[in-house]
Every structure is written in C-alpha cells, then in structure tokens.
Amino acid sequence: MTDIRKKIEEIAIDDTSGWKEDAKYRRANRKWLRKSQDIALRILDVLEEKGMQQKDLAEALDVSPQQISKIVKGKQNLTLETISKLEQVLGVELVGVPKYQTKMDVDKKEVKTSFGKQKRQRVAVQVDFGDVFKQPSDSDYNYRNAA
C-alpha cells in the first residue's frame, strides 16, 4: 500500500505543466484578458465579413502573421496604438470612448410647496459637455453674421 502512495506523491509533486501559474496569471489579469478576447472575436468577425485572411491583415498593419495570430487568440495586451491601427485598417470601432458627461448635485436652499411648508431638496442635474468643444459649422457662422 505504501508503494502506491509513494508513486502517487511522486506523480503529484512532478507538476511540470505549469497549469497553476497559468491559472494564477489568468485570474490576476481577468479583466483585460476578457476585453482582449472580445476585441479578438470582433476582429475575426470583421475579417470574415470582409473576406480577409489574417495574413492580409498582417500585411496591411505591417506586422508578422504570428503577431496577428496572438491578437486573435485574445491573449495579447493591446496598446491604444495597435487598437487604433486595427480600427483604421478594418474600418470599424473596436473600443469606444463615451462622450464626457458629469453629474452635479445642486442643493436648493428652501422651496415653498403649495401647502406653505418649507422643504430642502437635493436635485441631480446631468450636464453634457459633448457639444461645448464642437467646431461651429458654416450655418452657425452665417447665422451669427446675419444677425
């Protein structure tokens, strides 16, 4: 019985596959790996829609086919530069950045109700600054000059 136990312990101790380290890495990097996988799936879908192969994408990006292979496996930590180049070549948006918005709390002092009681109210106001930095169009310019 002890011979069997020794053999089991030897086999159990001889873990050369590195699966534990891989699992720890995946757990520690779960969030960006998930996003990388989502991007990889989107790239594969677009390649299929456009009838392109990975080697065509590699040539368009001036990278090796091995690099594209790593990207479409979803295990590559992509830089913004790489994502931008992929978006340009594929003609799609892979990562979106929402418009800048902020929420402000405005504290009103006292508000009289129709019953004559006074209340303090807190009001949430959402402000969208998306158009603040917009360049004026020709129609805006002409309108201003006409006035």
Mind explaining what this structure looks like?
This protein has two domains: 18-90, 434 Repressor (Amino-terminal Domain) (Orthogonal Bundle), CATH 1.10.260; 101-146, no CATH class. It is an alpha+beta fold and 147 residues long. The protein has seven helices and four strands, in the order ααααααββββα.
* Radius of gyration, CA atoms, in whole angstroms: 29 Å
Distance separating the two termini:
100 Å
Structural class: alpha+beta
Domains, number: 2
Question: Which strand order do you get reading across the main beta sheet?
Answer: 1-4
DSSP summary: helix tally: 7
Question: Based on CA inertia axes, which overall geometry fits?
Answer: flat
Strand fraction band?
5-15%
CATH class identity of the largest domain: Mainly Alpha
Q: Give the overall pLDDT as a whole number.
A: 79
Question: What does the main sheet amount to?
Answer: 2 strands, antiparallel
How many strand segments? 4
Could you state the CATH homologous superfamily of the largest domain? lambda repressor-like DNA-binding domains
Instruction: Describe the oligomeric state of these chains in a short phrase.
Output: single chain
Q: Which residues form runs of ≥5 with pLDDT under 50?
A: 140-147
CATH architecture of the largest domain: Orthogonal Bundle
Sketch the topology as an H/E string, one letter per element. HHHHHHEEEEH
Give me the CATH fold name of the largest domain.
434 Repressor (Amino-terminal Domain)
Fraction in helix: 40-55%
Domain HTH cro/C1-type: 43-97
Organism: Gracilimonas mengyeensis
GO molecular function: DNA binding
InterPro entries: Cro/C1-type_HTH, Lambda_DNA-bd_dom_sf
